[in-house]
Design the sequence.
């Protein structure tokens, strides 16, 4: 199968490209570094015309939730406007499938486990931009007949993720404290509950959805299990080479935080047979090992 991946040099994009190649797909990997701007129609049309993919995986986005508060217009331009550009071009070139990676952040604050029928009520500018991308993908299916799959990805991590995000940020602080013989690390809010998966399981779900997903439908990609940030911190601290105490730093606490974000993967599992293969502890081990390597490793 010929696949085109936007945002291919990003954290998830790199893992997706590797996975697609491992299963035998012919992959065209594009991003702004390769000269493809997803908000520019001519740029997107040119790459589709040159490669004629069977499936487009649209990952390109500005993805940091906290930073979306400082640049909401730019986040909306890239995340929603870029999605619209890709969908229009895919319609023009009659792409067989388009997997649009939106986000569970579009659900906002929800008590209990989230299904695909849960209304989208985003709290953050990032969540709003992804809700718009989700609806644009639905419109492209209903109005243009494009076979879109709407992915609502919950939190995921793994080696290679930037340390602006929760798990690698915590791992970096622990590795730096070990290297400096420090006694504490600073953290943000410990109360949020998140559904946390390994990126390698997430990209496997994307490929399965491209083949087995129902066009026009939305799918939660998640583990179905919630974990408090405090427990993630505890598990990482248990791996530390030295005892460390935790200091909550107000500067690291977001002004608006979705308190709980836990999804139901039943539909994904039913339609594709997907099951996760990486447990959280092994993922934390991999992220912490990478953080230690970047700070000089174990002494």
Sequence:
């Amino acid at each position: 199968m010929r696949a085109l991946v936007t945002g291919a040099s990003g954290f998830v994009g790199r893992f997706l490209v590797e996975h697609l190649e491992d299963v035998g797909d012919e992959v065209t990997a594009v991003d702004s570094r390769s000269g493809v701007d997803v908000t520019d129609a001519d740029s997107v049309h040119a790459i589709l015309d040159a490669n004629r993919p069977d499936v487009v995986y649209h990952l390109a986005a500005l993805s940091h939730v906290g930073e979306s508060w400082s640049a909401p217009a730019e986040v909306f331009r890239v995340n929603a406007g870029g999605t619209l550009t890709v969908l229009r071009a895919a319609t023009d070139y009659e792409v067989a499938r388009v997997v649009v990676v939106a986000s569970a952040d579009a659900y906002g604050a929800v008590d209990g486990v989230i299904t695909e029928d849960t209304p989208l009520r985003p709290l953050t500018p990032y969540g709003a931009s992804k809700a718009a991308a989700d609806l644009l993908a639905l419109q492209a299916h209903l109005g243009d007949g494009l076979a879109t799959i709407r992915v609502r990805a919950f939190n995921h991590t793994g080696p290679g993720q930037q340390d602006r995000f929760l798990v690698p940020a915590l791992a970096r602080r622990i590795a730096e404290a070990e290297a400096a013989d420090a006694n504490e690390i600073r953290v943000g809010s410990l109360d949020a509950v998140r559904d946390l998966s390994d990126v390698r399981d997430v990209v496997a779900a994307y490929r399965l959805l491209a083949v087995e997903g129902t066009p026009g439908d939305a799918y939660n990609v998640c583990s179905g299990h919630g974990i408090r940030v405090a427990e993630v911190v505890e598990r990482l601290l248990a791996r530390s080479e030295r005892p460390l105490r935790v200091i909550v730093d107000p500067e690291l606490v977001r002004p608006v935080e979705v308190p709980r974000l836990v999804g139901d993967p039943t539909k994904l599992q039913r339609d594709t047979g997907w099951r996760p293969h990486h447990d959280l502890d092994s993922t934390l081990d991999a992220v912490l090992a990478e953080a230690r390597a970047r700070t000089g490793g174990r002494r």
